[in-house]
Amino acid sequence: MKYKLIALDVDGTLLNDNHELTEQTKKTIQEVSRTGAEIVLCTGRGPQNSIPFMEEIGLKGYVISHNGAATVDVVTKEVVHQFAMDTKAIGPYMDYFREKKVHFDVNTAFRMYVDNVDGMVVEVRSMYENFLMLPANLPPMQELGEPVVKVTAFDYADVLDKVHEEIGKWTPEFNILRSGEYFLDLMHPDASKGNALKQLAKRRGVRPEEVLAIGNYYNDITMLTFAGLGIAMDNSPLEVKAAADEVTASNNEDGVHAALLKYCLS
Question: Which domain of life is it from (predicted)?
């Protein structure tokens, strides 16, 4: 068995554009798991809306959630590692988002908060429904009682382009990255999918050359370059394909199935 740890992004990779896990891809992942390889989901989602996919496939182990900011045990729901943000430093960013009328949410490992749940516009509410999440109202930061691991802004792509450009000029306090066309994430400077995957591989006694990773967006580049074999989906931006070792079919063409068949089951 060449690859002992296999990291799969979720949206745009594991799931098709209808947010569905196809039966073919599910069966192939189960077959790879039976060979002894460990499957880990490595996603921008939180554990509460990524662990159900592990359970559907019948897998134990871990999910690397919030773009690497929190790693969680699938069975016990224990947070085995997280990168906590400086909550005082988050304030100016939230003020900026409010001033620009850019929607944002604040995430702890298992919880998500927004300014006003009842006041969310239809497009925003629909987005959360697609991702199987329902946020709660944000209390004062000092009352959260657990570390904040990610703040996500959600808006049109051109709006986020400008936001990214503007806050990118501030004193660098966070890792700021695009996790999707309509999403911009703020995290601890050390938080990334690649860093979290590196820590998990070390914990599991797996060498980098024994890791295979599949992803489709800019937030996947760190894990694609860490892995011994990094595979980009055909629906990836050119920069992501350039960072990968190989390119598989798109998420609407069961690209994960094709890659696992070629590199793990042939």
Answer: Bacteria
Indicate the class that CATH gives domain 87-187.
alpha beta
Q: What pLDDT, in 10s, does the model give residues 162-188?
A: 999 999 999 889 999 998 899 999 999
Q: Looking at the DSSP assignment, which residues form a beta bridge with residue 102?
A: none
Q: Where are the domains of the chain?
A: 5-82+191-264, 87-187
Residue 15 has pLDDT above 70, yes or no: yes
- DSSP secondary structure, 125-177, as one string: HHHHHHTT---EE---GGGS-S---EEEEE--HHHHHHHHHHHTTS---SEEE
Cα first-last separation, the chain:
11
CATH for the 5-82+191-264 domain, from 3.40.50.1000, 1.20.1250.20, 3.40.50.2000, 3.40.50.410: 3.40.50.1000
How confident is the model at residue 266, as a pLDDT? 87
Q: What is the mean pLDDT of residues 6-34?
A: 97
* HSE-up (13 A, CA, CB side) for residue 34: 8
Residue 53, sorted as left (phi over 0), alpha (psi -120 to 50) or beta, turns out to be: alpha
Query: Which residues form the catalytic set?
Result: 9
